[in-house]
Amino acid sequence: MELLLDSHTLLWALYNEAVLPRSLASILRDPENSLFISEASVWELSDKVGKRRLSLAGNSVSQFVADIEAFGTMLLPIELADILASVVLPAHHGDPSDRLFIAQARARNLVLVSKDSDIAKYEVAVLWK
């Protein structure tokens, strides 16, 4: 399975796996599955780490990035087509990052791993179990 992790999913998978449903944690650890994270997640979360607003991930941006790399995720670049697709999505969700994740997942046939119930309002495969 090819999975795109929402920012909160990435954080919990890295630093607080007990918050994730057990079956989901198992899916994320399964080497048969490919895990992707958007460049937008790295940017958003690194900014919070650098400003010391994300204690779960510590205070070092370089350590946070090293943790992401060690987890085995592949970085998903943001393309102009992703941006354009995200801005024309219905306004079910107010967060532009989440709309970007939806657009990226749809364009690449990825399953979006997110607890956010608003994401299910879009035509995108979502996993949270």
Can you characterise this structure?
The protein is α/β, with parallel strands linked by helices and 129 residues long. It has one domain (2-127): 5'-nuclease (Rossmann fold, 3-Layer(aba) Sandwich). It has six helices and five strands. It has a five-stranded parallel β-sheet with strand order 3-2-1-4-5. It is globular.
What topology emerges from the helices and strands here?
Blueprint: E1 2-5, H1 7-15, H2 22-29, E2 34-38, H3 39-50, H4 61-71, E3 74-76, H5 80-87, H6 96-108, E4 111-113, E5 126-127
Parallel strand pairs: 1-2, 1-4, 2-3, 4-5
Helix pairs in contact: 5-6
Oligomer: single chain
> In the CATH hierarchy, what is the architecture at level 2?
3-Layer(aba) Sandwich
CATH level 3 topology = Rossmann fold
Low-confidence stretches: none
* Structural class by SSE content: alpha/beta
Strand content: 5-15%
Which homologous superfamily in CATH is the superfamily? 5'-nuclease
Note the gap between the termini.
Answer: 14 Å
Shape descriptor? globular
Summarize the biggest pleated sheet.
5 strands, parallel
Number of strands: 5
Tell me, what is the CATH class? Answer: Alpha Beta
Into which percent range does the helicity of residues fall?
40-55%
Secondary-structure element series:
EHHEHHEHHEE
Question: Reading side by side through the largest sheet, how are the strands ordered?
Answer: 3-2-1-4-5
| Count of discrete structural domains | 1
Compute the CA-based radius of gyration.
14 Å
Q: Helical region count?
A: 6
- Quick check: average pLDDT? 94
